[in-house]
Amino acid sequence: DIVLTQSPGTLSLSPGEGATLSCRASQSVGSSYLAWYQQKPGQAPRLLIYGASSRATGIPDRFSGSGSGTDFTLTISRLEPEDFAVYYCQQYGNSPPWTFGQGTRVEIK
Amino acid sequence: EVQLEESGGGLVKPGGSLRLSCAASGFTFSSYGMNWVRQAPGKGLEWVSSISTSASFLYYADSVKGRFTISRDNAKNSLYLQMNSLRAEDTAVYYCARDSGQYCGGDCPGDYWGQGTLVTVSS
């Protein structure tokens, strides 16, 4: 099974700053089947990025994804107050079908 | 508007059973694979099970294999998760999620998620 390791565990930043979140896979993620989700307290996850770099419908362009193989990055160019949340990476298209990273919390500094 | 609504959660004793349901609306349910994902209190997301459009393919996490059964009724636009032999470590919010594309065959993330139903396993 592919294991996804996210870093850092927590990111403390101020509104307006940029954020860089990392997701490393234990083996290559085929066809860049890597997604990113945002989750706020008491809410369901929201799909942000799929295919490593494609934004989902309605996602602001301050969110961008990059990477391939085993190393992937989610970048938030300028943090808005509503962006403080937990972010998960996910691989799909392998066996098992879905695997999630442990999450990165982006908190207000 | 795509909507997914889970139900059936509650408090159950260890060794007990529970059946979760997910009612879907706003899309052609029979064209989409569906998934269950859970989240223990204060923890991260854990994939539980997936089912293909016609239920020909079923997938389970090792942690639930042999105890949980996923199913669907395309005529009723509903997804189910039968949970048997429940353990304390099954305590979590259970989400149903739709594949982001039609007939993905497992090659899609989840684009729509329900709000979840809480399952608590405790004596």
Beta content of chain B comes to: over 45%
**What is the β-strand count of chain A?**
11
Please give the largest β-sheet of chain A: 7 strands, mixed
Provide the residue-averaged pLDDT of chain A: 96
Q: What characteristic shape of chain B results from the CA principal axes?
A: globular
Rg of chain B computed from alpha carbons, rounded to a whole number of angstroms: 14 Å
Order of helices and strands of chain A: EEEEEEEEEEE
| SS-based class of chain B | mainly beta
Number of helices of chain A: 0
Count of helix runs of chain B: 0
Give the largest interface pair and sizes: A-B, 26 and 22 residues
Anisotropy-based shape of chain A: globular
Q: What is the helix/strand order of chain B?
A: EEEEEEEEEEE
Question: How would you summarize the topology of this molecule?
Answer:
The complex is a heterodimer of chains A (109) and B (123).
Chain A lengths: L3 E4 L2 E4 L5 E7 L8 E6 L6 E5 L3 E2 L7 E6 L2 E6 L9 E7 L5 E3 L3 E5 L1
Parallel strand pairs in A: 2-11
Antiparallel strand pairs in A: 1-3, 3-8, 4-5, 4-9, 5-6, 7-8, 9-10, 9-11
Chain B lengths: L2 E5 L2 E3 L5 E8 L8 E6 L5 E7 L6 E3 L7 E6 L4 E6 L8 E8 L10 E4 L3 E5 L2
Parallel strand pairs in B: 2-11
Antiparallel strand pairs in B: 1-3, 3-8, 4-5, 4-9, 5-6, 7-8, 9-10, 9-11
